[in-house]
Amino acid sequence: MIRSARLLAVITALLALAGCAADTGIRGYWTLHDTDFRKLKPGMTKPDVVAIVGKPRLAVTFARLGEEVWEYRYLDGQIFMKAHVSFDTKGVFKGHVESYDQDAYDAVSE
Q: Measuring CA to CA, which residue among 67, 42, 70, 35 is closest to residue 54?
């Protein structure tokens, strides 16, 4: 009886943790590709962008520049890449820049 109660408690705790860990809006880097970012067109809104590439892992506002930048990571074949997606102060998509994700490789060299 006690064994069953402990097992039930462990299962309940694991299910609760799994529910907290899952954010369905953020896509895994292995599911994004450069072709996803090419679908973004100037004038799109933030919800339009989220519908195509998901929520960003990082969002930074540059008040003086009047710009908000979202960061995404993805794979281009076997190469780790970053994409920075820019919005104006009204939340309208301006453009994006893709570059190698040097952070992914810096950890390997240490």
A: 70
Residue 56 exposed, middle or buried by CB count within 10 Å (0-12, 13-18, 19+) = buried
Give 93's contacts (C-beta < 8 A, 6+ positions apart): 40, 41, 42, 43, 44, 45, 46, 48, 49, 85, 86, 87
**SS3 call for 89:** coil
* pLDDT for 43: 92
Is 6 within a domain? no
Please give the tally of structural domains in the chain. Answer: 1
As averages over each run of 10 residues, the pLDDT of the chain (110 residues) reads: 62 58 75 93 95 94 94 91 94 94 70
Q: Record the tokens describing residue 43, joined without a space.
A: 């004038």
72: domain range?
25-109
